[in-house]
Amino acid sequence: MSQATVISILGALAVVTTVWGIYAWAALRLGARRALRQRLDSGPAASAAGDAALRTQILRDDDPTQREAAATPRRSLSPAAYIRQALLEAGVKHSVLTACHVAGGGTLAGTMALEAAFGMPILAALLVAAAGTILGALGYLHARRTQRLQAIATQLPAALDMIRSSLQAGHSVNYALEVAVDELPEPLAGELRTVLGEIRLGRSHREALENLCRRVPVLELRFFTLAVLITREVGGSLSEVLGTLAETVRDRQKLRQQILALSAQGRASAVLLFLIPPSVAVVATILRPGFLSPLVHHPTGRTLLSVAITLQLAGFLIARKIVRPKELRLA
Fold first, then answer.
1. Greater confidence, 13 or 105?
2. How far is Cα 119 from Cα 5, in angstroms, rounded to an integer?
3. Tell me, what DSSP letter sits at residue 169?
């Protein structure tokens, strides 16, 4: 690869990431100002003290893309808000701009590696590297999200028991949450700590718990939020409701484990069928070098290879959906 080509690729990626960063920053600032103006215009104006308190609470709000994500289905979000929501659910403490910079760096490294190793044209290498970077980032976020949600769902029954015991002892909901934060491990302790911080800064219990459900889209956690909000509005024994909810959550987790055990053979078969073709290709290349070279260097071979990879991925996704029923999904 010539020096001019490398400089051109670096310049193009720098321009793309800079423009995207400016767009994301402008969207955040514009959304924040619009939301601030609307809430100030619709807020109470009875006294100067009331206006000051309202402004103070507004200035404590989080990223406007979080509020957009709370009110909009994920598939309908803007690009910046969608990335922000994906980072939130995965527990990644980085901004949208940082994620774009990492993606740009990965695309550049992949382009240079493909061009140097296989002699691919610059445009084709750039497209392949960009697709690989995006797929890799999505896979990483999906794995982090699944691991995090699974850990929170596992810790939730113990948290419900702690909160119920504190309520039965006569303490408030806030104190019960403090006890759970001190006793529970991460990541659930960190999420409850965030809820307490939002409540102390002036948000209502409804807003704080709704934000929790947005950051952690676990169905059992939504049950907990509904239980707290309903008992606070219409009355009732929250400790009894939480005790019943803890038993229900444990039964759901037990059922999920049973389904995992029954579908283990099907999932293992799907992974095995997906790994057989690339394994055979690797073994054939080792035993007889150049045996698969027409698939890479000949136009017809590259077309057949692309079709085979596409069908392989489609078959894997279909098999995965068959052996992973809806009951196994946490959110």
1. 105
2. 13
3. T
d(CA 310, CA 236): 56
Other residues' Cβ atoms within 10 Å of the Cβ of residue 288: 9
Q: Is the peptide bond between 73 and the residue preceding it cis, with omega within 30 degrees of 0?
A: no
Residue 138, class by beta-carbon neighbours within 10 Å (0-12 exposed, 13-18 middle, 19+ buried)?
Answer: exposed
Tens digits of residue pLDDT in 108-117: 888 888 777 7
pLDDT digits (tens, 9 = 90+) for 11-28: 666 666 666 666 666 665
**pLDDT 10s digits, 179-205:** 999 998 888 999 999 999 999 888 888
pTM equals 0.66
Could you tell me the two tokens for 72?
A: 């909009």
Q: Decide: 252 and 326 in contact? Cβ < 8 Å.
A: no
**Identity of the amino acid at 23:** Y
304-327 residues labelled b (16+ CB within 10 A) or e (exposed)? ebeeeeeeeeeeeeebeeebbeee
CB atoms within 10 A of CB 42: 9
What SS3 state is found at 263? coil
Contact in structure between 246 and 157 (CB atoms under 8 Å): yes
CB 229 within 8 Å of CB 210: no
